[in-house]
Every structure is written in structure tokens, then in C-alpha cells.
Design a protein that fits this description.
This protein has 2 domains: 125 residues, Sandwich (Jelly Rolls); 184 residues, 3-Layer(aba) Sandwich (Rossmann fold), CATH 3.40.50. Strand 13, helix 9 and strand 14 form a beta-alpha-beta unit. Helices cover 30% and strands 20% of the residues. The protein is of the alpha/beta class. The protein is globular. The strands form 3 sheets. It has a 5-stranded antiparallel sheet, covered by helices on one side. A 5-stranded parallel sheet has the order 11-10-12-13-14, with helices on both faces. It has a 4-stranded antiparallel sheet with strand order 1-8-3-6, with no helix packed on it. The N and C termini lie far apart (98 Å).
Length: 383
């Protein structure tokens, strides 16, 4: 005969076991073991020759003669007391900087230290925020992607790629977009030919917002500024500052000091119509006074990719675009020449698929922007 207390005890035991199982999460699979291509970059090989990029210099590093707090800062030290504090802080990210070199090595490695321990963001991968992105020229001279580092720590000494086809070729390594760099060296097997290539002069200078800064490219070479640099085969300077591209006169003062091939002003995503009306004409006049013949391109803000269903956003873009168009027409009446204009309605395309979060570009959005910028820049540059 079953004891009368046995059934309640059995039920209580089963209930406790079920509760414990529900509270114990299942162990997530190790994706890197399932697919090694998903793993972080492997450690660098031993017995390499290391080449410090400071020995020959970076492109995208304007005002190279000015002292800096850190070699890889975008602004010189003197700017700290001139530009708004958020702009200064953001300028310490290495966005847009790129180093070129030639080598016949069949394996390439990098050793670099980042200034911030946070490697990625909720909507942007570590490869874009903190990666080093490698390109090379193919036999026809066209820039082609090679590999990006997949960082897992603030300090990295890793293999970028091996098994490269034999031959001497030119490479370009783009630096992290939303992290700062303390040091960077390129590693090649001993005996390999290696030549650092000096930075090219007269860059296209982009002044803008988080989108120009690089949000949310999957890797540094996929920002539209970098894409355009490869297509035009020109150096670029990226002065994008998240939330703080506002046509500030102190930033304009530093722009005036650059012997630029062209200035691209793309600040509207951080501005409202009243700001545009108040600041656009003075900034262009400031640039034109210092650089009488340098092309200047004004860019409307991209539309939020969900503005079709958010009427307030659509209205905001309409008003912002109208304000910039009015400023452009005023500048033309004032006799400002060599001035171009890029509409914003289709910068991400018109299908709503060009952004990660409605605001910031995906790789697709960046490619679409580059497609619209390119003919305007080519015409302005006389190419």
C-alpha cells in the first residue's frame, strides 16, 4: 500500500526539478568552433619584421606639422581649446586614417593598441568600431578588399591574412572608426620586401556627423568617405563627429588651414532648419575667404529610412532640405562660385533598406551614398 505522503512528495520533487531546469539557461554553442571563420583574429606568427607606421605616416591625418597629444588623433593639440569639447573628444578616434605600403609578403600581421576597451557597439560590430581593414591594388590598379581584423582585446598582435598570391603590390590599411589608436605596426615574414608609402597631399575633406564618422559600417573601409577615396584614388580626411557635426566656426577655422582638393559639408543630420539658416552661409564664406578656388559641396541630410511611416521625421527632413537649398541659393546670389549641391532624398536609396536603425547607414547605405557623391565630386574636381 502506497504511503499517503508519498504522492505529495513526488509532486513537489518534480515541481522543484522543473523550476531548477527553467532557471538554468542552456549553454550557448561556441560559434567559433562551429564555424572557425567567426572566430577572433589568430595570434601573429613568431619571428616577424615589424614596421611602425609612424616611420612614414598616415593619410587622413591633417595638419601633420602640428603637435598632437597622440600621433593618431585627428585634431592637433591646439584644437582642444578651440573646438567644442564633444568634438575634441570624438576627434581622438582614428576615423578615416589609412596607411599605405608595398610588400611582397605572402602573410600580413598587425600589432596595435586601442585607446578604449569597448570594442563594439549595440548596432555596430567590433570590426567597424575597432578593426584594421586591409585593401590591395590588383593587377589593373583597382583597390580590392583583402581582410579585416576581428578584435577581441584592447591590445592585439594578430595575423590579418596568410596564403597571399606571390608578388609585390600596394596595400592600404584603414584604422578603427570609433576607437582611438595608441600604436600600430605592420608585420611581415623576415626577408620580405617592405616599403612604407608617404601620405599623398591635397585630400578631399569631409566635415559631418556620425554617418561621416562611420556609423554603422561593418568595417572601416566601407564608409562612403573611404569608398570615394578608392574610387577617386585620392586621400581623404574624415572630420565626422557623432552628434556634433554642426557647422561650427572653430572647426571651420581648422578646415581653412587644409590645402584641400575639395570640402564636403555634410552636417545636416545634426542640425535643424534654424541652425542651417544661421550657420551655413557663414561657414561657406569662411572657407571661401581662405580658399578662393577650392570646390565646396553642400549635402542635404539623408532621410530616415522609416520616415514614410513617421510623419514628423518626414516633415523635419523637408524643412531641413528647404533651409539648405535657400542657403545655397543665397550663396550663389552672393557670387560664391565652385559650389555644388547633393540632394538627400535618395542618399540611402528609396527602399528603406540602407540603414541599421533608420538613421545610420549600413554598408548598403554607404555604397549608395558613394554612388551619388561620386559624379558630383568628379565634376567639381574636374575629373
Amino acid at each position: 500500500m502506497r504511503h499517503p505522503l508519498l504522492l505529495p512528495i513526488l509532486l513537489a520533487t518534480q515541481l522543484l526539478a522543473a523550476t531548477l531546469c527553467a532557471q538554468t539557461p542552456a549553454k550557448a554553442p561556441d560559434t567559433a568552433k562551429l564555424d572557425p571563420a567567426m572566430a577572433a583574429s589568430q595570434a601573429a606568427a613568431e619571428n616577424l619584421d615589424w614596421h611602425d607606421v609612424q616611420q612614414w605616416g598616415l593619410e587622413g591625418r591633417a595638419w601633420p606639422e602640428e603637435p598632437r597629444l597622440r600621433y593618431f588623433d585627428r585634431f592637433p593639440a591646439a584644437a582642444e581649446q578651440m573646438v567644442p569639447k564633444p568634438v575634441w573628444n570624438l576627434s581622438r578616434d582614428s576615423a578615416g586614417m589609412m596607411v599605405r605600403f608595398k610588400t611582397d609578403a605572402t602573410a600580413l600581421h598587425v600589432q596595435y593598441k586601442l585607446s578604449k576597451a569597448t570594442l563594439g557597439m549595440p548596432h555596430m560590430p567590433a570590426t567597424g568600431v575597432s578593426g584594421v581593414d586591409l585593401y590591395a591594388r590588383d593587377a589593373s590598379g583597382k583597390w580590392r578588399w583583402v581582410m579585416v581584423t576581428k578584435p577581441s582585446a584592447q591590445e592585439a598582435k594578430v595575423k590579418v591574412i596568410d596564403g597571399l598570391a606571390p608578388g609585390l603590390r600596394e596595400y592600404a590599411a584603414y584604422l578603427p572608426l570609433y576607437n582611438g589608436v595608441e600604436s600600430l605596426a605592420i608585420g611581415v615574414p623576415k626577408g620580405a620586401t617592405f616599403e612604407g608609402l608617404a601620405p599623398r597631399q591635397r585630400p578631399v575633406v569631409f566635415y559631418g556627423t556620425s554617418i561621416t564618422h562611420g556609423a554603422c559600417a561593418s568595417r572601416p573601409g566601407m564608409v562612403h568617405t573611404a569608398i570615394l577615396g578608392r574610387r577617386l584614388d585620392l586621400p581623404v580626411v574624415n572630420l565626422g563627429f557623432s552628434g556634433n557635426g554642426r557647422m561650427d566656426a572653430p572647426v571651420g577655422e581648422w578646415l581653412c588651414r587644409i590645402d584641400a582638393a575639395a570640402f564636403v559639408i555634410d552636417c545636416l543630420p545634426n542640425m535643424g532648419p534654424a541652425d542651417v539658416t544661421a550657420r551655413c552661409v557663414p561657414l561657406v564664406q569662411q572657407l571661401r575667404a581662405a580658399r578662393p578656388s577650392t570646390p565646396i559641396i553642400l549635402v542635404e541630410d539623408r532621410r530616415y529610412t522609416n520616415d514614410w511611416i513617421t510623419p514628423a521625421k518626414a516633415k523635419f527632413h523637408d524643412q531641413n532640405h528647404a533651409a539648405l537649398r535657400a542657403a545655397f541659393e543665397q550663396l550663389q546670389k552672393l557670387g560664391i562660385t565652385n559650389l555644388s549641391y547633393i540632394p538627400g532624398d535618395a542618399l540611402y536609396g528609396t527602399d528603406g533598406e540602407g540603414a541599421t536603425d533608420a538613421s545610420h547607414a549600413s554598408d548598403l547605405g554607404f555604397m549608395r551614398q558613394a554612388d551619388l557623391f561620386e559624379p558630383v565630386l568628379r565634376k567639381a574636381l574636374g575629373r
